[in-house]
Design goal:
The two termini are 13 Å apart. The longest helix is centred in the middle third of the chain and has 15 residues. This protein has 64 residues and is of the alpha+beta class. Strand 1 and strand 2 form a beta hairpin.
Length: 64
Amino acid sequence: MEFKDLEIFQLVAEKGTITEAAKDLKYVQSNITSRIRKLEAEMNTPLFNRHRRGMSLTPEGKNY
């Protein structure tokens, strides 16, 4: 796990969308998505619920 992954996680949680987080970080959306999926794989748990209009933290995600 890299510090940048945690920073991305925090920003997505705050913004509620990968699009907004990507804009703030000046990254492409696919990079943010892959970093979040990598972090979820390392933690062995889903951290976000994906919705049509964004993302929200799972109970496990709220613990981090």
